[in-house]
Structures are given as structure tokens and as C-alpha cells.
Write a structure and sequence with these properties.
- By secondary structure, the protein is mainly alpha-helical.
- The protein folds into two domains: 160 residues, Zincin-like (2-Layer Sandwich); 46 residues, no CATH class.
- The chain contains nine helices and six strands.
- The strands form two sheets. The chain has a three-stranded mixed β-sheet with strand order 1-3-2. A three-stranded antiparallel β-sheet has the order 5-4-6, with no helix packed on it.
- Helix 6 packs across helix 7.
- The two termini are 38 Å apart.
- The N terminus is likely disordered.
- The protein binds zinc ion (2 copies).
């Protein structure tokens, strides 16, 4: 555990090591960075423990297994649906919160490590198929979804992850720091600035004041 919390951050930004971690670093580097991020975002330690992220050997084995599956699937799909016309892309894990990407310039597929760790093979597969479909169809057009269905993808959205949920909470806290509540219905609202204290609760104004501003329902600072 101590090793996992080791000072990744102390490495200077421009060092090639750090860059290596960002772009394409090994599964274990990404796993450690993911775990560090969860701790930083104050995710419940029990939730983190449950994922057994400290078990490097297990995860290295499991994650490299997924990549091997992805290459096999790419070869099969390329042969069956594209007449073998594409070369193998780079397929690796990335630090996105969920889902993945296809980078055409680098001919590279990235699949969220956080999503794979939290949701397992089924979601890894969905994202992999989605990104393979992007090799042939750049945008999310009807033709894209048609192709995706043909190669076995469901087209469902990438799932929520603890990482994404925590990032959203942090975003809201940072960008909407003013918390106010209605003295009548007690509902809480978040706003960007303290100007919110001049507003009144809309549902209450509608319900009890014919939709007009009524100071009885003026927000109170939390
Ligand atoms: Zn897409
Ligand atoms: Zn109200």
C-alpha cells in the first residue's frame, strides 16, 4: 500500500518517465495512477479496497489478458468485415474516466482502465468494439451504429465509474460553490456567485405567488 502511494507527483513534469506514464505507460503505471486519483478524490477507502488494486500481479495478468483479447477480436473483425484492409492499431489502456478513444493519426485505441477495473470484461468489450468501429466510421453517424451492431456492439453508453462520479462532484463543488436554500420548501441549490442570494425559489413563487417574485421565498445562504 505504501508503495502505491509513492510520490509519482514528485517526478518533474518534463521528465520522459512522466511522459511515459501519461502516454501509453504500462498497465501497472496506469493502475497506480488510478488508485492515487481515487484516494485524492476522497473515494470511500472500503470501495477502493474492494477492487484489490494493490494486487499488482493479479491486475497485470488480467489487464494484459484483455489487451490480448482485443487484438484477437480486431483481427477477426478486420478479416470478416473489412476484408483485412486495416493494419493492427495500437490497443492500450488509458486514463480516461470511462469509455475510450480512437486516434486516427496514431492509429491507436485507448480503453479506460478505470472502467475496465470497475466494470470488467463486458464493458471493456463494448468500448473496444465501439473504437474498432471508429477505425472505419469517424463520426457517430447512422452508418457508425449500423457497423457497430454488425461487429457485435450493443451501442450502449459507457458506464459511470467512481472516478467519473467523483470528478463530477468536484467539478460542481469548484464551479458552483455558493449553496443556498429556499426558506419555504428547504430545497438546496448551487450557484456560481453570491448573486444567487437575490433570487427567489421558482417552484414556490409559481405555487404560491402566481409565478411572480416573492421575497418570502428569497434564498438564504447555507
Ligand atoms: Zn465514439
Ligand atoms: Zn421553495
Amino acid at each position: 500500500m505504501i508503495r502505491l502511494l509513492a510520490p509519482l507527483r514528485k517526478v518533474k513534469k518534463k521528465s520522459p518517465l512522466r511522459r511515459g506514464v501519461r502516454r501509453g505507460g504500462s498497465e501497472i503505471d496506469l493502475l497506480h495512477a488510478y488508485r492515487k486519483k481515487l484516494v485524492e478524490l476522497k473515494i470511500d477507502p472500503l470501495q477502493i479496497e474492494r477492487l484489490d488494486l494493490g494486487n499488482d500481479f493479479y491486475w497485470l495478468f488480467r489487464l494484459s489478458g484483455f489487451i490480448a483479447i482485443a487484438f484477437g477480436e480486431f483481427d477477426r473483425i478486420n478479416e470478416k468485415h473489412f476484408a483485412g484492409k486495416y493494419s493492427r492499431p495500437v490497443i492500450r489502456f488509458c486514463n480516461r474516466s470511462t469509455g475510450g478513444f480512437y486516434n486516427k493519426t496514431r492509429h491507436e485505441i485507448g480503453i479506460s482502465l478505470a472502467m475496465t477495473v470497475e466494470h470488467g470484461e463486458a464493458e471493456f468489450r463494448e468500448t473496444m468494439l465501439h473504437e474498432i468501429a471508429h477505425i472505419a466510421q469517424h463520426s457517430h453517424s447512422a452508418a457508425f451504429y449500423e457497423l457497430l451492431a454488425k461487429i457485435g456492439g450493443s451501442g450502449r453508453k459507457a458506464p459511470m465509474t467512481m472516478l467519473l462520479a467523483a470528478k463530477r462532484v468536484r467539478y460542481v463543488e469548484r464551479n458552483y460553490p455558493v449553496i443556498v436554500h429556499c426558506p419555504n420548501c428547504k430545497r438546496e441549490h448551487r450557484y456560481k456567485t453570491r448573486r444567487a442570494l437575490r433570487y427567489a425559489c421558482r417552484p414556490c413563487c409559481v405555487k404560491y405567488a402566481g409565478g411572480k417574485y416573492d421575497s418570502r421565498f428569497k434564498f438564504i445562504a447555507q
